[in-house]
Amino acid sequence: xxxxxxxxxxxxxxxxxxxxxxxxxxxxxxxxxxxxxxxxxxxxxxxxxxxxxxxxxxxxxxxxxxxxxxxxxxxxxxxxxxxxxxxxxxxxxxxxxxxxxxxxxxxxxxxxxxxxxxxxxxxxxxxxxxxxxxxxxxxxxxxxxxxxxxxxxxxxxxxxxxxxxxxxxxxxxxxxxxxxxxxxxxxxxxxxxxxxxxxxxxxxxxxxxxxxxxxxxxxxxxxxxxxxxxxxxxxxxxxxxxxxxxxxxxxxxxxxxxxxxxxxxxxxxxxxxxxxxxxxxxxxxxxxxxxxxxxxxxx
Length: 299
Ligand code: FPP
Ligand code: MG
Fold this sequence. Notes:
InterPro entries: Isoprenoid_synthase_dom_sf, Polyprenyl_synt, Polyprenyl_synt_CS
Family: Belongs to the FPP/GGPP synthase family.
Radius of gyration: 19 Å
Number of strands: 2
Protein name: Octaprenyl-diphosphate synthase
Distance between the termini: 24 Å
Keywords: Magnesium, Metal-binding, Transferase
GO molecular function: metal ion binding; prenyltransferase activity
CATH class of the domain at 1-111: Mainly Alpha
Structural class: mainly alpha
CATH superfamily of the domain at 1-111: Farnesyl Diphosphate Synthase
Bound molecules: farnesyl diphosphate, magnesium ion
Helix content: over 70%
């Protein structure tokens, strides 16, 4: 998409305002992601000066949150490339995150009041979601409710705010688009959690099957725990570097209990909910396509 290049140029322009070459240098080092939030905004609001600015703002906030997340998670790769904390250090990752984040907010303050409200509010949710995520790794979580609330805040809230804001920009029904964005975001995070199990590290751009080792009991593991016979054995593998026998046991149990299969079904079901909310809208075909592309990332 040509227009995504325009979004990247807009981000560059927003950072150039700082008149600080180091910040631009760091920007160059950031690996570009899928830009799901921008694709969503552009599909809903079309291409305009404002929609491109909104994309740039949301991408900068998202990038800032990942810069901080990589410090929190002690990750050394991001999107298949060395993360900023690995290339430089934690301090640089946090400070550059702060620059991206605050520049985004300055620009956001110049936009429509409702948009500024919903996007800034989503960032609080995002921050609470991150804290919940970290808290949930303290002990084996068995609550689907807690998992759902956490992924809503950590991931879906900013996608919801992006869809809502795009609709507000062009006078569409913002509630319907917000519901679409929220469910798209929930399904997106569930699929991310599923891919951690089903994909190899090369495709993921980070080690595979890492979530459970890091203490994250994601949806496939929640189902697995509910259904597996030897719950104590599963619990004993929690937060442990697994050897190949242990890994194979988990994989076997995923098959046997259909936990993985049903987690995929649940993500697709939420995806369908998203589509339902915008099915009568003019651009619903595009929105169905975004959902399909997102769900059909290789399992
Ligand atoms: C990635 O999750 C993390 C997020 C989606 C949100 C992180 C949010 C913050 C650090 C708070 C907000 C801060 C600012 C400055 C806006 P993950 O660790 O599950 O995914 P990963 O495997 O891609 O790292
Ligand atoms: Mg992380």
